[in-house]
Write a structure and sequence with these properties.
Blueprint lengths: L2 H12 L3 H20 L4 E3 L3 E8 L2 E4 L6 E4 L2 E8 L1 H9 L1
Antiparallel strand pairs: 1-2, 2-5, 3-4
Helix pairs in contact: 1-2
């Protein structure tokens, strides 16, 4: 399912217009991205947690040539699924 299909599913379930559903989804995504980029954690109970973590510099390998290279330190976004989300996936 992509964003357009998600918008369509919300329209069908809630009876709202496509523009309203897309606007709400886009705003929610924007707020989550903005907060995680600022170093904050966003927790949606039952769904999961979005946050950023610091990854240290490490040595990697180019799979094509086998050459070793240094991967610089960075901050990366992560998502941890919540309990209800995990249970739904495992039971479904």
């Amino acid at each position: 399912m992509n964003k357009g299909e998600l918008v369509g599913a919300i329209c069908d379930r809630r009876g709202v217009t496509r523009a309203v559903a897309e606007s709400i989804i886009s705003e929610a995504i924007d707020v989550i991205v903005q907060q995680v980029a600022q170093g904050n954690r966003v927790t949606l109970v039952g769904f999961g947690t979005f946050e950023s973590v610091h990854a240290k510099e490490r040595v990697g390998r180019n799979p094509r040539t086998g050459e070793t290279l240094t991967i610089p330190e960075r901050t990366k976004p992560i998502f941890r699924a919540g309990k209800l989300f995990k249970e739904a996936v495992n039971d479904g």
